[in-house]
Design goal:
It contains 6 helices and 6 strands. The protein is an alpha/beta fold. The protein has one domain: Maf protein (Alpha-Beta Complex). Strand 4 and strand 5 form a beta hairpin. The longest helix is centred in the C-terminal third of the chain and has 28 residues. 37% of the residues are buried.
């Protein structure tokens, strides 16, 4: 079966785009980037207080611009010793246009004097889905618990993955897990699994409507 739904992913992050396409590869959906849909990017001010706020902001903006179903991911790292920071500023922790390496270095500096027993953290991901037929967003969440290492380890993944020691994964960071392992336990993988019933409902509704039109 070919794609039944086209969904625009409201992100400029190629790592997130690749992960979402892989996680949804078994469903008859076509995941488009904003550039695919518009021929250019779309700037959205992410000034929400929570991951859900920002995910909804992005999903609504992209849905209105493209008139297509829009899926937005807002996610980040919460470190207990830092009072939950970097949180919604995970991508901008070091400064407004920081690279992954700069953010990782900033995190290690701020945790330099924190002992291993107090370096607990979690990745949190919120996915928001908005359709052209309703401005009311649906949202789901996934969480992955772990702690922060003292130096980067592994060359897979992106963002803070090389610093995030995953709970229950034999002392490995997210950047040391292969793709299948990561998708099974990651915050984004868990959020996508929570989202699947909503997508399946949309797919079935679309197929039913097409069948009724065709008679």
């Amino acid at each position: 079966m070919g794609p039944v739904l086209s969904i625009v992913l409201a992100t400029q992050n190629q790592g997130k785009l690749s992960e979402l396409r892989l996680l949804l590869a078994d469903l008859p959906v076509q995941i488009l980037s904003v550039h695919d849909a518009l021929g250019s990017g779309l700037e959205v001010v992410e000034d929400g207080a929570t991951f859900r706020d920002n995910a909804v902001l992005k999903a609504r903006a992209v849905c209105r611009a493209t008139c297509l179903i829009s899926l937005a991911d807002d996610s980040g790292l919460e470190v207990d010793a830092l009072g939950g920071r970097p949180g919604v500023r995970s991508a901008r922790f070091a400064h407004e246009h920081a690279t992954d390496d700069e953010n990782n270095a900033q995190l290690l500096r701020e945790l330099d004097d924190v002992p291993e027993s107090e370096r607990s953290a979690r990745f949190r991901c919120v996915l928001a889905l908005v359709t052209p037929f309703s401005d009311t967003p649906a949202s789901v969440e996934g969480v992955c618990e772990g702690s922060i290492t003292r130096a980067p380890r592994g060359n897979k993944g992106f963002g803070y993955d090389p610093l995030f020691l995953v709970e229950g994964q034999s002392g490995r960071t997210l950047a040391e897990l292969d793709e299948d392992e990561k998708n099974r336990i990651s915050h984004r993988g868990r959020a996508v699994r929570a989202l699947r019933p909503l997508l399946i409902e949309l797919i079935n509704r679309t197929l039913d409507e097409a069948e009724s039109v065709l008679g």
